[in-house]
Amino acid sequence: MFRIPKIAYIATVVLLLTGCAAKSSNDLVLVTHDSIVISKSLIASFEKSSGLKLTIVKAGDAGALTNKLVLTKGDPIADALYGIDNTFIGKAEDNGILAKSTVTAIDYADICFNYDKAWFEAHAIATPKTWLELTQPRYKNLTVIENPTTSSTGLGFLAATVARFGEGKWQTFWSALKANGVKVDAGWEDAYYTDFSGSAGKGDYPIVLSYSSSPADEANTAAILDGCFRQTEYAATLTGSKNPTGAAKLIEWLGSLEFQNSMPASMYVYPINKKAAIPESWATKAPEATSSLGENLKISQRREAWLKQWGNLFG
After folding, report:
1. How far apart are alpha carbons 43 and 28 in whole angstroms?
2. Helix (H), strand (E) at residue 260
3. What is the pLDDT of residue 217?
4. How many CA atoms lie within 13 Å of 257's alpha carbon, on the beta-carbon side?
5. Record keywords: Transport included (predicted)?
6. Residue 160 and residue 145: Cα distance in Å, rounded?
7. Which residues make beta-bridge pairs with 84?
8. Which domains does the chain have, with CATH numbers?
9. What is the pLDDT of residues 211-247, one digit of tens each?
């Protein structure tokens, strides 16, 4: 799940998650995460060019989205999906909810820690240079993260710690992080917009697990760019879709320059299409990570074991 302005208008129609896939050949239902931002004008443009009527269903963070699609795979709640990332795509594929050969990368972003520069200046505390420092006493009770069992952001960071320390050793870091007072929220929006002091929510925690591109929205924040997790989001047709032809048109449109050019400003992510325009300010306000960890691990094979072990520590 990615970053959106709290005041952004989300042009969506939210339906109950019960058997709401397309009812006619002109109806198309897209299920996605809570942070989706597609303007009215873009939706109108797609509907005009495709001849389809698009309905958008929001279903939580990427983890919650995946779980709901697995539970409803016998009676799909949509025709297409957008927003499952590389931490959960394996679970979706293993459970057969994605139509073969339809999975398409749409965007990417780097999961990194952000910090509130003004808070650290006011308290005369040095800002952390790497996330390895977050277990130090001076950062006690200052960090909020997302739960890896429900959040793709949290799971991405968990994978990064496994890559950094190795199997059987990453638990030591997490135990130290817990002992140092880390707060765990269910999803990114709660962590960033409620608990993070550097956002509009003015929360109590000056360090938050977020994205390198989040500072583009907040002038007084910065990101730790070393040791991030490169997150890629996908779109696909759902198995059992009542309108697979329409779903294919939508997926193609999501990869078009018309939609891709809108993504940096609306969702603070990097478009997968290299021809898409990136704001010049992103070179300094939303830079890509200097190094990344974990995205090359066999996440789908190890995810459940990691989450069980993490749950034993934080349960």
Report:
1. 12
2. helix 257-260
3. 56
4. 5
5. no
6. 14
7. 234
8. 27-108+231-285 (3.40.190.10), 110-230+287-314 (3.40.190.10)
9. 998 755 566 899 999 999 999 999 999 999 999 999 9
